[in-house]
Backbone:
């Protein structure tokens, strides 16, 4: 089921997903021998820029399933619009491995390589790309940015700040709270682990605290600075709450198995924020479909490459509905009994835990 996306023309105060990225992959040169080509020397080698073709840089903040799905969807969206990697599109990909400094360096390198467009996946990469491109004509198309307004990428009415636009993965917080209440009618407290440097996570926690009382919950949050803090923080949090709900916090998602191990020892469920987390062992989620989010982002980028609109003229877009994902094996692991009707209502259900 494809998610509908709308152009957001109102204040959005929700969370973002961030995560880690690393070393640059070898750029693929567009094969276009029928036209003259300009060769640009870069730190990662020569990139051939043929007339009629485009070179884009993709900066991904972290390496995990949801952001990978965003990237794959982005390229699929471009391909549907006629921009095919290896034909008329050269893609330079780099991953920051959840390091802010690396994300900034990647963006600066893309600028020095004179790419035609930067796709930034997750809030830290989006902010870095925006800053690096501020004095250039290079457009930035971002995705998986939970709160573009809080990140300084958009105005409160959804319009762009600078030559940047994209898609938001703001979480459906009230849907998630309602789902948790259905599964755990007697639960009183929900734990949330987050990275203090991720503005998207802080925005989402504020949303949870705003609505939690409406569903009879107390939110207990625990902040970390680096991935090394996760084991101790997760163990402490799991000992205090009835369940944990996971955000799209990039650092925490990168250490999801550590969080799951801590929760399993206490016999409490972890609820995810998207399908990949449920596949990996979260019990359930009212989650987002990141491939479709990326695909829509690719369609937006295609408009810019075709000259149909400038990024500065396009308001950011956001998913408007979520789907239920359930992992019965994860529930069985902690002895949690799920209502059969509830399980059967899931958009997608899994009977095994897939650890990559």
Residues:
């Amino acid at each position: 089921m494809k998610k509908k996306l709308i152009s957001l023309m109102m204040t959005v105060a929700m969370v973002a997903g961030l995560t880690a990225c690393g070393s640059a992959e070898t750029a693929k040169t567009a094969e276009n021998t029928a036209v003259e080509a300009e060769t640009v020397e870069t730190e990662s080698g020569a990139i051939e820029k043929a007339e009629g073709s485009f070179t884009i840089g993709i900066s991904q903040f972290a390496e995990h399933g949801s952001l990978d799905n965003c990237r794959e969807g982005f390229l699929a969206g471009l391909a549907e619009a006629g921009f095919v990697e290896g034909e008329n599109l050269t893609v330079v990909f780099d991953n920051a491995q959840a390091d802010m400094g690396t994300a900034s360096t990647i963006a600066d390198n893309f600028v020095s390589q004179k790419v035609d467009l930067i796709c930034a996946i997750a809030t830290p990469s989006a902010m870095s790309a925006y800053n690096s491109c501020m004095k250039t004509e290079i457009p930035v198309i971002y995705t998986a940015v939970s709160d573009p307004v809080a990140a300084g990428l958009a105005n409160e009415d959804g319009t762009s700040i600078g030559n940047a636009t994209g898609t938001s993965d703001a979480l459906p917080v009230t849907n998630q709270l309602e789902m948790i209440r259905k599964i755990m009618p007697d639960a009183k407290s929900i734990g949330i682990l987050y990275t203090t440097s991720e503005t998207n996570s802080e925005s989402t926690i504020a949303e949870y605290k705003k609505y939690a009382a409406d569903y009879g919950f107390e939110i207990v949050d625990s902040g970390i600075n680096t991935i090394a803090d996760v084991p101790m923080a997760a163990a402490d949090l799991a000992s205090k709450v009835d369940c944990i709900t996971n955000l799209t916090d990039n650092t925490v998602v990168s250490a999801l198995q550590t969080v799951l191990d801590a929760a399993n020892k206490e016999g409490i469920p972890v609820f995810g924020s998207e399908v990949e987390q449920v596949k990996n062992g979260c019990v359930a989620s009212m989650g987002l479909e990141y491939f479709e989010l990326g695909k829509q982002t690719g369609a937006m980028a295609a408009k810019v490459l075709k000259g149909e609109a400038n990024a500065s003229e396009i308001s950011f877009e956001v998913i408007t509905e979520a789907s239920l994902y359930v992992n019965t094996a994860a529930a069985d692991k902690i002895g949690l009994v799920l209502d059969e009707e509830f399980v059967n209502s899931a958009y997608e259900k899994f009977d095994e835990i897939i650890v990559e």
Notes: The chain has two domains: 5-170+290-319, 173-286+323-350. Confidence is low (pLDDT under 50) at residues 1-49.
